[in-house]
Amino acid sequence: MSLEANGIQPLLSLLESQGGWPVLQGITWADSPMNENWSWPEASLRLSEVGISAGYLLGIGVGPDIKNPGKRIITVSAGY
Question: Domains in the chain: how many in total?
Answer without folding.
Answer: 1
